[in-house]
Design a protein that fits this description.
Blueprint lengths: L10 E7 L5 H12 L4 E3 L7 E9 L6 H5 L3 E9 L1 E3 L8 E4 L6 H7 L5 E5 L8 E2 L2 E2 H6 L9 E15 L2 E8 L5 H11 L4 E11 L2 E2 L6 H5 L5 H5 L14 E3 L2 H8 L21 E6 L2 E9 L2 E12 L9
Parallel strand pairs: 3-12, 14-15
Antiparallel strand pairs: 1-3, 2-3, 4-11, 4-12, 5-6, 7-10, 8-9, 10-11, 12-13, 15-16, 16-17
Keywords: Isomerase, tRNA processing
Family: Belongs to the pseudouridine synthase TruB family. Type 1 subfamily.
Catalytic activity: uridine(55) in tRNA = pseudouridine(55) in tRNA
C-alpha cells in the first residue's frame, strides 16, 4: 500500500508555541490534524522559546520566504551573572561575574547593538560548518569558531527589571537575528556575562498574538474538519507588505503560462516600478502570483492556483 498523501489544504495557521517542543514537531502535529499534503513553518523557534510560529499549508508554503524575511518582535529575560554554553538556561555554566549593571548602564549599551550590526551566532545553532550542524559539533566537544554575520536590529527596549539578576527587553528585528546572541552581547557590553532565561516571539510578519492558537486548543477540534479549516488565514495574508498591481484576464493567463507580459498601462500611464521590484499580480479579487519587474515586463516568480485575496477575522476564543 502506498503512502497516504493527505488533502490539498491551503492557508496559514498561527500557532502559539509552548515550551519544550520543536518547530518541526509543531508542523508535523498540525499537518496530521489537518491531514494536509504539504506544510512548513515561517521561522524556527527553539524548544525553550514560546510564541508566534506561523505554519503554512499547501500553496502558503510558496510564501514562506516572505515571512522568513519579515520583521519580528521578541520579549526576553536576560539573566545576569552567568554565561552558558548554549547562551540560554539549558547550557552548562561557562563563567560567572558579580557585576550587576544599573538600568542606566544597560540602556547606554543598547544603541551600539541597534541598526545594521555584525553578530556572532550561538555555538549551539543550526548553522552548517563544513556540512555539519554547529550544535552537533558543539555536542561532540568540537565547538566551531563561527564568524560574525550581518544582522538588522530595529529597536531594543529595557521594559522591566524584576530584580538585580534579571532584565526584560523587547526587540524588533529583521531576518536571522539570534536573541541568545543579543542577550549575551548586552551583558558583555555592560562588563558582565549573561544568558537568556525566557524568550517569547510576539510577532512574525503580519501575524501576532491576536491570531494565535495553542496546540492543545487546536487538538480540541481534531474531529471537526470545518472548524479546523475555519482557523486558517488566507495565503495572501503573508504578502501584506508587498505592493499589488491589477492585471487583466489575458495578462493573468499569460503569467500562468510562464510568460512575461508588459507591465499594464492604466489611463495611459505605466506603473512607476524599478527593475527588480517584487509585486503581487491580482486579477480582481484573485491572487495570480508574485512577479518581478524586468525591463518593463512582469516576470512571474510564484504562481498560485485559484486563490482569492482578502483576509478574515478568526475567533480563537
Amino acid at each position: 500500500m502506498g503512502r497516504r498523501k493527505g488533502q490539498d489544504v491551503d492557508g496559514w495557521l498561527v500557532i502559539d508555541k509552548d515550551l519544550h517542543i520543536g518547530s518541526t514537531d509543531v508542523v508535523n502535529r498540525t499537518r496530521r490534524l489537518f491531514d494536509a499534503r504539504k506544510a512548513g513553518h515561517g521561522g524556527t523557534l527553539d524548544p525553550l522559546a514560546t510564541g508566534i510560529l506561523p505554519v503554512a499549508f499547501g500553496q502558503a508554503t510558496k510564501t514562506i520566504p516572505y515571512i522568513m524575511d519579515a520583521t519580528k518582535r521578541y520579549r526576553f529575560t536576560l539573566c545576569l551573572g552567568e554565561s552558558r554554553t548554549t547562551d540560554d538556561r539549558e547550557g552548562e555554566v561557562l563563567a560567572r561575574s558579580g557585576i550587576r549593571p544599573e538600568d542606566e548602564v544597560l540602556r547606554a549599551c543598547l544603541p551600539a547593538l541597534t541598526g545594521h550590526i555584525m553578530q556572532v551566532p550561538p555555538v549551539y545553532s543550526a548553522l552548517k560548518v563544513d556540512g555539519e550542524r554547529a550544535y552537533d559539533l558543539a555536542r561532540a566537544g568540537r565547538p566551531p569558531d563561527l564568524p560574525p554575520r550581518p544582522a538588522r536590529i530595529d529597536s531594543i527596549t529595557l521594559v522591566e527589571r524584576p530584580d538585580r539578576d534579571h532584565a526584560v527587553f523587547e526587540v524588533q528585528s529583521g531576518k536571522g537575528v539570534y536573541m541568545r546572541s543579543l542577550a549575551r552581547d548586552i551583558a558583555l557590553a555592560c562588563g558582565t556575562v549573561g544568558h537568556i532565561s525566557v524568550l517569547r516571539r510576539t510577532k512574525c510578519g503580519p501575524f501576532d498574538e491576536r491570531h494565535a492558537i495553542t496546540l492543545d486548543k487546536l487538538a480540541q477540534n481534531d474531529d471537526k474538519a470545518d472548524a479546523l479549516l475555519a482557523l486558517l488565514r488566507p495565503v495572501p495574508t503573508a504578502l501584506a507588505d508587498i505592493p499589488a498591481l491589477a492585471v487583466t484576464e489575458a495578462e493573468a493567463q499569460a503569467l500562468r503560462w510562464g510568460q512575461s507580459p508588459p507591465l499594464p498601462v492604466s489611463d495611459g500611464l505605466m506603473p512607476t516600478m524599478e527593475d527588480g521590484t517584487i509585486f503581487q499580480a491580482r486579477e480582481g479579487e484573485c491572487l495570480v502570483g508574485l512577479c518581478r519587474v524586468q525591463e518593463g515586463r512582469m516576470k512571474p516568480i510564484r504562481i498560485f492556483e485559484s486563490l482569492r485575496y482578502g483576509d478574515r477575522d478568526v475567533d480563537y476564543s
